[in-house]
């Protein structure tokens, strides 16, 4: 694999190594559970072993008698604490210690607190319960699973769409398909385990926990505990993988806080990987029915996408990816419908490109089938159906470089060498297949605040309560400040991951680079303005230059005509040591309450399909080669090429890493990942990294990322389209397309396994 960072092209920033790279690779970047805490006690969860029913008796005596056990927080011990809420900030409305109802397997029934981790674990194992048990519904086809339309039921889903006359267009289409697709349950397995450490000092509570939303959690935790948010601080400086799993706060946070208050000591609870399958969120299984009709010329006239998603009994979690699939091509008519299926499961939640990964998988697999039905090259098929405007609302795209991405990726991949005949390409015992698919991700931004301080010696401090979840946002924030303030990046320090800092939105939806950089940019502009006024003022070192055309570079304020003044001299003229500016950024179209909501932990998203003037998306094209052993049917992916256009690329190294990581995850979705469910007990079976398969080094060979230049001034002041979630959209469909090309087998249900090809 080529490890070099791509050289910047037009509208791309330098491939500066991450500012925290050294700390990361030397293990000095402590995750929240690594942070030293004096006099800490350890908490271990005890969980239910049924999926549906009520606790009739909870036996804690044996655990209480264990040496070292300090306390047990269990059902009934949450007096004065409000139940969690389901929504963007809260993972589920299930308050496991608030009542005796069991909603899912592995539900928290107690937290044992002890002097040592081992004692707490032993105590948790000694807890037993009696239940009145009911038969649980595990998934879509289970008796008792309840289906309902998503529209109107969930705050997370807007609407079904009926644009044009789908039924008429479809019934008269010359070429059509009507197929169903499915994706399995997938579970978060970040390297860093989930954890909460809670510490009280008087009435002040500090939480160390990996979080993608420190401000939102501060507010939500204060609400649950009925305390003033001023007294709550969430600290999350480094995170070992998030991908949505650390976005919404789970019930555990308040439980650990209650435990720490009871034992009057800090309590640290690290959740085992096994327990995380049930106590954290996950990607729900989905089903899709797609109908596409087209003329013999390949022009689509009718598109319908119906989706079904599993959720928990009480919560209407939904992703509804029809918002993106319905706008992907020039369909003529569009019909979409999303339904929820409530089962006795823990509430699912965000996982990297939550709506797009499953829904675009189905769409792109269907597009490949249509191309086959039409006898048309799949790239050509996309080209023919490239829209001028999105087909639902008729709005323009702020920018759309999809065809450019296809052209560049196809060229680099060598698509022209592909023999379109199925099963025609072979290399010894290996059947060779080549396939492709489109990636799309909505471009959004949310209100964000940042503080920037510049001192006379050229040191810069950036503070923003965003989160370094591995994306490189600390690095790009530093780059933005270094560029605008004309200092070397080594002189910029960035503080993040603490609710005591200026508030930032959830680090989700690929909004962080755009939102954070826009806020940092605004603060830097204010710093520059102050310096420029002083530098060009009567007593300034550049008196008489006028401040309109000044700039900052090499720790100097410079004029257009080549005059310059050292920063230190400008500060001297101002008779101050530092300039500090606090800026609040709100995207275009923000409501009058947008900034107030930012401080309340409910940042408004703008962009995607929400804006009046245009729709905003980033695009990409992914090409995959598969090799399938003709005897064993072993499936290998020797190479992938993806080309992506996402507006301003702040840093080609971190951008490439994000996209490459996404494509690799896409291989996992295509070939490895699936949570196996015991349908009788609504129980996850493969709850560890031995049986829950993710790609390892041996599975991944050449991954080539092409960054396609794109300029978009409409999306946000930084001109940035988020790309953290773009790379793994479409990958699985490209693999399915390649598998079909190699074997003639159309696999519609993920993951694709050897057994499917025998
Ligand atoms: Mo991402 S799944 O929006 O954290």
Please name the defining characteristics of this protein.
758 residues; alpha+beta; Aldehyde Oxidoreductase, domain 3; Aldehyde Oxidoreductase, domain 4; 3 domains; seven-stranded mixed sheet; six-stranded mixed sheet; 17 helices; 34 strands; globular; binds dioxothiomolybdenum(VI) ion; Ald_Oxase/Xan_DH_a/b; oxidoreductase activity
Brief digest:
The chain has 758 residues and is an alpha+beta fold. Helix 8 links the parallel strand 17 and strand 18 (333-342). The longest helix is centred in the C-terminal third of the chain and has 25 residues, at 512-536.
How are the secondary structure elements laid out?
Blueprint: H1 21-25, E1 41-47, E2 53-59, H2 61-64, E3 69-74, E4 101-102, E5 108-114, H3 117-125, E6 128-133, E7 146-149, E8 161-163, H4 166-172, E9 175-183, E10 186-187, E11 195-201, E12 204-208, H5 214-225, E13 232-235, H6 252-263, E14 267-270, H7 273-279, E15 282-283, E16 286-294, E17 300-311, H8 322-325, E18 333-342, H9 356-374, H10 378-384, H11 402-413, E19 426-427, E20 430-442, E21 444-445, E22 448-455, E23 460-463, H12 473-485, E24 492-495, H13 512-536, E25 551-553, E26 556-558, E27 564-566, H14 567-574, E28 578-585, H15 594-599, E29 606-607, E30 617-629, E31 635-645, H16 652-671, E32 677-678, E33 683-684, E34 702-707, H17 731-743
Parallel strand pairs: 1-14, 12-13, 17-18, 23-24, 31-34
Antiparallel strand pairs: 1-5, 2-4, 2-6, 3-5, 7-18, 8-18, 9-16, 10-15, 11-12, 11-14, 16-17, 19-20, 20-30, 21-29, 22-23, 22-28, 25-26, 26-27, 30-31, 32-33
Helix pairs in contact: 9-17, 12-13, 16-17
The structure holds dioxothiomolybdenum(VI) ion.
């Amino acid at each position: 694999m080529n490890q070099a960072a791509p050289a910047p092209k037009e509208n791309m920033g330098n491939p500066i190594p991450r500012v925290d790279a050294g700390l990361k690779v030397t293990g000095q970047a402590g995750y929240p559970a690594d942070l030293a805490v004096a006099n800490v006690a350890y908490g271990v969860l005890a969980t239910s072993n049924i999926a549906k029913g009520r606790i009739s008796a909870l036996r804690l005596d044996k655990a209480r008698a264990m040496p070292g056990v300090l306390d047990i927080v269990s059902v009934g011990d949450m007096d004065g604490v409000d139940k969690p809420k389901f929504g963007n900030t809260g993972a589920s409305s299930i308050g496991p210690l608030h009542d005796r109802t069991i909603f899912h397997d592995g539900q928290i029934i107690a937290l044992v607190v002890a002097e040592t981790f081992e004692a707490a674990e032993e105590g948790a194992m000694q807890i037993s319960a009696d239940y009145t048990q009911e038969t649980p519904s595990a998934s879509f086809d289970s008796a008792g699973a309840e289906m309902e339309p998503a529209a109107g039921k969930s705050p997370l889903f807007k609407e079904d769409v009926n644009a044009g006359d789908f039924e008429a267009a479809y019934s008269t289409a010359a070429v059509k398909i009507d197929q169903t697709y499915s994706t399995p349950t997938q579970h978060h397995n970040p390297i860093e385990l989930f954890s909460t450490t809670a510490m009280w000092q008087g009435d002040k509570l500090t939480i160390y926990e990996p979080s993608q939303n420190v401000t939102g959690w501060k507010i939500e935790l204060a609400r649950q505990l009925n305390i003033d948010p001023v007294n709550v601080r969430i600290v999350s400086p480094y995170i070992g993988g998030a991908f949505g799993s650390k976005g919404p706060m789970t019930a555990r946070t308040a439980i650990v806080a209650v435990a720490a208050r009871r034992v009057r000591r800090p309590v640290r609870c690290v959740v085992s990987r096994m327990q995380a399958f049930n106590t954290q969120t996950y990607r729900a299984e989905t089903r899709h029915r797609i109908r596409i009709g087209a003329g013999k010329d390949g022009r689509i006239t009718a598109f319908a996408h119906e989706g079904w998603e599993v959720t928990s009994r009480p919560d209407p979690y939904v992703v509804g990816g029809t918002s993106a699939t319905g706008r992907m091509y020039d369909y003529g008519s569009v019909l979409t419908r999303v339904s929820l299926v409530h089962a006795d499961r823990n509430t699912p939640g965000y996982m990297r490109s939550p709506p797009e990964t499953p829904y675009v998988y189905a769409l792109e697999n269907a597009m490949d089938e249509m191309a086959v039905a039409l006898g048309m090259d799949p790239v050509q098929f996309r080209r023919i159906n490239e829209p001028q405007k999105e087909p639902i609302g008729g709005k323009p795209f702020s920018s759309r470089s999809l065809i450019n991405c296809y052209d560049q990726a196809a060229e680099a991949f060598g698509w022209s060498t592909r023999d379109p005949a199925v099963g025609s390409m072979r290399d010894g015992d290996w059947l060779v297949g080549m396939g492709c698919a489109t990636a799309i991700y909505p471009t959004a931004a949310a209100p964000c605040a940042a503080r920037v301080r510049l001192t006379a010696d050229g040191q810069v401090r950036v503070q923003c309560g965003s989160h370094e979840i591995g994306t490189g946002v600390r690095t790009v924030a530093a780059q933005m400040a270094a560029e605008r303030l004309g200092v070397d990046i080594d002189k910029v320090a960035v503080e993040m991951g603490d609710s005591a800092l200026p508030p930032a939105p959830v680090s989700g939806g690929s909004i962080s680079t755009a939102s954070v950089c826009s806020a940092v940019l605004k603060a830097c502009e204010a710093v520059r303005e102050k310096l420029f006024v002083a530098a060009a003022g009567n007593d300034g070192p550049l008196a008489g230059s006028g401040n309109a055309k000044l700039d900052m570079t090499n720790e100097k304020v410079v004029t257009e005509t080549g005059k310059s003044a050292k920063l230190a001299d400008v500060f001297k003229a101002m008779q101050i040591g530092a300039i500090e500016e606090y800026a609040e950024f709100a995207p275009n179209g923000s409501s009058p309450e947008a900034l107030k909501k930012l401080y309340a932990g409910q940042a408004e998203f703008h962009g995607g399909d929400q804006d009046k003037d245009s729709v905003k998306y980033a695009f990409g094209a992914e090409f995959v080669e598969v090799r399938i052993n003709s005897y064993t049917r072993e499936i290998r992916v020797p190479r992938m090429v993806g080309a992506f256009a996402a507006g301003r690329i702040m840093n080609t190294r971190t951008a490439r890493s994000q996209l490459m990581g996404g494509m690799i995850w896409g291989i996992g979705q295509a070939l490895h990942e699936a949570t196996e469910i015991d349908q009788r007990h609504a129980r996850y079976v493969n709850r560890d990294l031995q049986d829950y398969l993710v790609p390892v080094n041996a599975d991944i060979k050449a991954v080539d990322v092409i960054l396609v230049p794109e300029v978009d001034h409409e999306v946000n002041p930084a001109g940035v389209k988020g790309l953290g979630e773009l790379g793994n959209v479409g990958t699985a469909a490209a693999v399915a397309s390649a598998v079909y090309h190699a074997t003639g087998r159309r696999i519609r249900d993920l993951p694709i396994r050897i057994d499917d090809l025998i």
